[in-house]
Amino acid sequence: MKKGVIALCASLLLGACASAPLAPLPARDQIRDFALEARFALRVTQTGQKAENAGGRLSWEHKNGNNHLLIANPLGFTLAEIDTTPELSRLQTADGKIRTSPDAEALIEEVTGQRLPIIQLPGWLLGQNPGPDTRLDPNGRPSRRHEAGWTIDYTYADDHPDALPERLMLNRDGEIELRLRIEEWKVHP
User: Fold this and answer.
1) What is the pLDDT of residues 119-159, one digit of tens each?
2) What secondary structure letter does DSSP report for 2?
3) pTM tops 0.70, yes or no
4) 139-172 b/e (C-beta count within 10 Å ≥ 16 → b)
């Protein structure tokens, strides 16, 4: 009887490891809208001060040039919601306070003390429009790019030329480091 139970458990485990084939990815430059679920780690180091660290979860929907970000602590409790449009950005904190600004990055800086590249991030996440300071991997995908004072490093889960990154590390002059571990992508051409 023990052997039968062990064999059943082994077959269930192996079956759970098998996954359905992934749908073909659209070409990277054809993706306009996306949603993602990620974990993040942020480290800010200011001259002469001890580094400050924060981490948690990020849900992001980018649609028609607008963004909706939900930032939560590691346990999933919402810390802030950010909505950006070309005209106005809005941030609501967990205590219900709302701030607005026509400049998304200025709004983030007002709240966090750091100017984070929220406007450039969708293109960076997708690896679109690589500039002259972009290094490509053997599959033609960005592996490192330098833009607007930031260095962005990409890690992919597979070798498909249109694969989206599984991990990103953004670094600005050693002062700010943002690591993203993307757990789920939903893309819409």
Assistant:
1) 899 999 999 888 889 999 999 999 999 999 999 999 999 99
2) H
3) yes
4) eebbbebebeebbbbbebeeeeebbbbbebbbbb
- Domains of the chain: residue spans and CATH: 26-188 (2.50.20.10)
Measured CA to CA, the distance from residue 29 to residue 189 in angstroms comes to 9
DSSP 8-state code for residue 29:
G
Contact indicator for 164, 181 with CB cutoff of 8 Å: no
Output phi, psi for 112, to 5 deg. Answer: -100, -15
Query: Each residue of 66-113: pLDDT tens digit?
Result: 999 999 999 999 999 999 999 999 999 999 999 999 999 988 887 777
Answer for the pair 55, 42: CB distance below 8 angstroms, yes or no: yes
Alpha-carbon gap, residue 120 to 61, rounded angstroms: 14
Which class for 89: exposed (0-12), middle (13-18), buried (19 or more C-beta within 10 A)?
buried
